[in-house]
From TrEMBL, chain A:
Pfam families named in the record: BPD_transp_1
Transmembrane segments: 12-34, 81-102, 114-136, 189-213, 248-270
Localization annotation: Cell membrane
Annotated protein name in UniProt: Multiple sugar transport system permease protein
TrEMBL record, chain B:
Domain ABC transmembrane type-1 residues, every copy: 91-298
Name of the protein in question: Multiple sugar transport system permease protein
Gene source species: Actinoplanes digitatis
A GO CC annotation given for this chain: plasma membrane
Location(s), subcellular: Cell membrane
Record has Transmembrane as a keyword: yes
UniProt family annotation: Belongs to the binding-protein-dependent transport system permease family.
Membrane topology: Multi-pass membrane protein
Length: 284, 308
């Protein structure tokens, strides 16, 4: 024991240093965005990248960003929040219900259904975007909110996670007791089981939220009207126009910073919840 | 006698209640599964079938000015897919990308997870969150941000950006791999880390009593036990790499070295923009199949290796 404690400090300093260097690597791009967002376009090129320039321009930049093209950027943020928020909310509810049914009831075709859903996890979302575009154009629904929102409500991975979690977290005795009390299956689910599954719900919600928030291919294929864009597509289109309008570069920088802030804050605030859900999902 | 009667009616009532309960359960199963399976069918199964159907059609024109019409083309589109040099080039590009990106990504994720699990007493939470934070950054935004960092005039490390042409044809693949690794290393670290946390303390404690060092414990006990988590991250990495689209598409805004046929998915998109939906559908069917086959093979091979 004593020898190991004596040899510890050097090893500890070494590993801590190693991790500090990588913490720097992971933080530098975000830090650079933060610094760049406070600068004028001239300072962006002339000042050092990792610290403030002499003048502080963050508020002017934010003002420009929020009013540019008739305030289209705030709309993009709202759209992203809508696609990701509604998509993840409904996606989580449906996936939880399905995973719960697959875990807690025995019925013919149960394993076949589960395997089909698992195969769905392996199907890349990008392979679906094109046929979805053709299907939506058949019914004249491309370039609408629905064309992006509805496909975002399906989360096969959520079903997988919900099934594992329901099997572990909802005891059979609780369900039996509820049945003896005359509670209907649905009522038991919505009043008792869903609470026991809360960490899984938060995890499914967060991961579906991130998946939809990051989505780029589907909106790129579906949407023409820039007022329907999510923020990823909007910033991409802006950056593709930088050669015509150099001012857009600053807008892309500030817009990128503003768009990642809510998600990072949400992850920090909710870490206690997604942490336990993630552990449950990956331990198997 | 009276008690017997009571028991018998009691059990009959119980049986009836169980029957009613079974019927209620069947209805509940439908309600629980209905919404998900409906959406899953409409937005997963139907598109896949529709894609396969589209890929079997071709456009025929009657004469030089005749109206185009769709007819059954058999495997004509697939012949074109497999004859396309661009397609094979893009496939070999993403395979190379996989070799450049994934070993570093998963290797670092494993090292971080092991260090956070055992060696570092301080700031564990800070490191965990810092490494994971980039996962909250969308691939498009991450690619835009790193794109700026690679451009010599904007880079905070101009000496590096000016001397190494990070956006030239020689290094651009590494530059994109760096963006992907930046986003996903922390996520994979968390998956491995939570598997490590599930290892019972007695196991490592026993090894320590036997005189095993940290390195030995990690190598002989911890790593073998987290192999399933590594396999899971490996499968997701295979799928993600073959589907690569967002990052290289954004890099076209910064670099001439990334063409519109850089990855298979970019070919699908470019083909559908022509528009040639039938050929694009054939490309995406082949790509989806290749993804499933490769991840399945990977699972088979690694599982045999891991579980005997």
């Amino acid at each position: 024991m004593s020898t190991s404690t004596r040899s510890r400090p050097i090893a500890t300093i070494g590993t801590t240093l190693f991790l500090v260097i990588f913490a720097g690597y992971f933080l530098v791009p975000i830090w650079w965005l933060l610094m760049a967002a406070t600068k004028t376009r001239g300072d962006l090129i002339n000042s050092t990248g990792l610290w403030f320039a002499d003048s502080f321009h963050l508020l002017d930049n934010l003002g420009d960003l929020l009013t540019r093209d008739g305030g289209v950027y705030p709309r993009w943020l709202v759209n992203s929040a809508l696609y990701a928020g509604a998509g993840a909310a409904f996606g989580t509810l449906f996936a939880t219900m399905a995973g719960y049914a697959l875990a807690k009831y025995v019925f013919p075709g149960r394993e076949a259904t589960f395997n089909l859903v698992l195969a769905g996890v392996l199907v890349p979302a990008t392979a679906l975007a094109l046929p979805l575009f053709l299907m939506f154009s058949k019914i004249g629904a491309v370039d609408t909110y629905w064309s992006v929102l509805l496909p975002s409500m399906v989360s096969p991975f959520g079903v997988y996670l919900a099934r594992i979690y329901a099997a572990a977290a909802v005891p059979e005795e609780v369900l039996e007791a509820a049945r003896l009390d005359g509670s209907s299956e649905l009522r038991t689910f919505f009043t008792v089981s869903i609470r026991l599954m809360a960490p899984a719900l938060v995890t499914i919600f967060l991961f579906q939220f991130v998946a939809v928030w990051n989505n780029f291919f589907l909106p790129l294929v579906m949407l023409q009207d820039q007022r329907l864009y999510p923020v990823t597509l909007g910033l991409y289109i802006w950056n593709s126009q930088v050669t015509q309008d150099p001012n857009l570069q600053m807008m892309v920088i500030v817009g990128s910073l503003l768009s990642i802030a809510p998600l990072i804050l949400a992850f920090l605030a909710l870490q206690r919840f997604w942490w336990s859900g993630l552990s449950a999902g990956s331990a198997r | 006698m009276a008690t017997m009667q009571a028991v018998r009616t009691g059990s009959a009532a119980g049986a009836r209640r169980r029957r009613v309960s079974k019927r209620h359960q069947r209805r509940a199963i439908l309600v629980f599964l209905g919404p998900f399976l409906t959406l899953f069918a409409v937005f997963y199964l139907v598109p896949i079938v529709y894609s396969v159907y589209q890929s079997l059609l071709k456009v025929e024109r009657v004469g030089a000015f005749g109206a185009p019409r769709e007819i059954f083309g058999g495997l004509a589109q697939y012949q074109q897919v497999f004859a396309s040099e661009d397609f094979w080039a893009s496939i070999s590009r993403v395979l190379l990308f996989f070799c450049v990106s994934i070993p570093v990504q998963l290797g670092l994720a494993l090292v971080f997870a092991l260090l956070l699990d055992s060696a570092v007493p301080k700031w564990r939470r800070f490191f965990r969150l810092t490494f994971f934070a980039p996962y909250a950054v969308p691939g498009v935004i991450a690619a835009l941000t790193w794109g700026f960092l690679y451009v010599p005039s904007l880079s905070p490390f101009p000496a590096v950006a000016e001397n190494a042409n990070l956006l030239g044809s020689g290094l651009v693949m590494f530059s994109i791999a760096n963006v992907v690794n930046w986003v996903y290393t922390g996520y994979n670290m968390l998956i491995i880390y939570s598997a490590l946390q599930a290892i019972p303390g007695e196991l490592t404690e026993a090894a320590r009593v036997d005189g095993a060092g940290q390195f030995r414990i990690a190598w002989s006990i911890k790593i073998p036990l987290v192999v399933p988590a590594l396999i899971l991250t490996g499968v997701f990495s295979i799928i993600g790499t073959l589907q690569l689209f967002n990052e290289p598409t954004v890099f076209r805004l910064f670099s001439n070295a990334v063409a519109s046929n850089y990855t298979p998915n970019m070919i699908v998109y470019a083909t559908s923009n022509i528009p040639n939906y039938h050929l694009a559908a054939a490309y995406s069917v082949v790509l989806a199949l290749a993804t499933c086959v490769l991840s399945f093979l990977f699972l088979k091979i690694t599982q045999r290796r891991a579980f005997g």
